[in-house]
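Review form for a predicted model. The reviewer records the input and the model, then writes brief findings.
Reviewer: anonymous (R2)
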Amino acid sequence: MDAVVCLVTTPPDQARPIADALVTRELVACVNIVARVQSVYRWRGAVEHDDEALLVIKTTRAAIPALGAALGELHPYETFELVALDVADGSADYLAWIAASVALPEG
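Model under review:
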């Protein structure tokens, strides 16, 4: 299976613009925005707490490099989260839709 689910956290006010750009660029089939998650993490030696939005992105494994490049352009964080999880199984029609919805840049 080529489908992956990617997790990306972002400031809440940036979630929709990033999601729109990724779908418009055909790098992803779908982005679900979980409006408010509380993140606790270590950054530069200190424990930080932030309210963020979580993007749950459906795309293909082959699109991950282009997705990472787009996030590097669009995302405001110096070090942004991009974690890809393989899809082990799912609706055949839905997985086919993901594959058909993602267009990799030529080059």
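Findings: The CA atoms of residues 29 and 100 lie 8 Å apart.
Further findings: The two ends are 24 Å apart (CA to CA).
Recommendation: see findings above.
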